[in-house]
Amino acid sequence: MPGRPAPTTRAARPPQGLSRRRYRSPALLPGAAPDLPPTAKRLLEAAHRLLVRSGYNSLTVEAISQEAGENKALIRYYFGSKNGLLVALTDSLIMDTLSRARQRLAESSDTKDRVSVVTDAAATILSDEASYRLLFDLLPRLLENPRMARQLADLYRGYRDINAQALWGDRNLEPPPLVRQLAAMTVALTDGLAVQVLAEPGSIDVAGVLRTWRTFLETALGAVTAS
């Protein structure tokens, strides 16, 4: 039975107006994928489709470029390497949620509102079991490679920073250590709940846990701002 025709591969020319040096990609910034050029987005989307369809081992440079209909040299141009693309792919699994959270934060005026944005984002992420399954397919492979592990560490540092800034608001001072610790705990809580939900669906009252965490955050932040 004939397979589907292979996409036409585009020539590996940098986009008009850019030099032949590697594109300075924002892909490692949490939630940055919406700001990528169209070609870079096509490469990310192609990698996502392959991961869903055939798993991690299908993510070769050749397969990704063919799926995207782009020359494989453009993976290096936009992401530095396949490793960079895979880290960007990890981030892209929650990019829509992060984008919406940023929009809500711009309209949040007090601690209670900001805490709600953070915990609502966690709830949305946890509701997407399919993306978490893909994440847990990627994570062990990323951690096996020292360079990808460092990039993953940078990405998670970014997630902690986003939560810290969200909880602390637009104050001129940097978030104090306690706020950064609360941000780290929020990231850990979200990933930890995901493991339990995937391992035993229905065993955890996610909404109840997040309500408890919201109350804890409001109390802790109230103590910080009052001191």
Give me the count of strands.
0
Q: DSSP strand (E) fraction?
A: under 5%
CATH topology-level name of the largest domain: Tetracycline Repressor, domain 2
What's the CATH C level of the largest domain?
A: Mainly Alpha
What is the subunit organization of this protein?
A: single chain
| Residue windows where pLDDT falls under 50 for at least 5 positions | 1-29
- Main pleated-sheet profile: none
Which of globular, elongated, flat, extended, rod-shaped describes the shape?
globular
Radius of gyration: 20 Å
In short:
The protein has helices at 38-54, 61-68, 73-79, 82-92, 95-105, 111-127, 129-144, 146-168, 177-199, 206-226. The chain folds into two domains: 33-92, Arc Repressor Mutant, subunit A (Orthogonal Bundle); 95-226, Tetracycline Repressor, domain 2 (Orthogonal Bundle), CATH 1.10.357.
How would you describe the overall organization of this protein?
The termini are far apart. It is globular, with a radius of gyration of 20 Å. It folds into 2 domains: 33-92, Orthogonal Bundle (Arc Repressor Mutant, subunit A); 95-226, Tetracycline Repressor, domain 2 (Orthogonal Bundle), CATH 1.10.357. It is built from 10 helices and no strands. With 227 residues, it is mainly α.
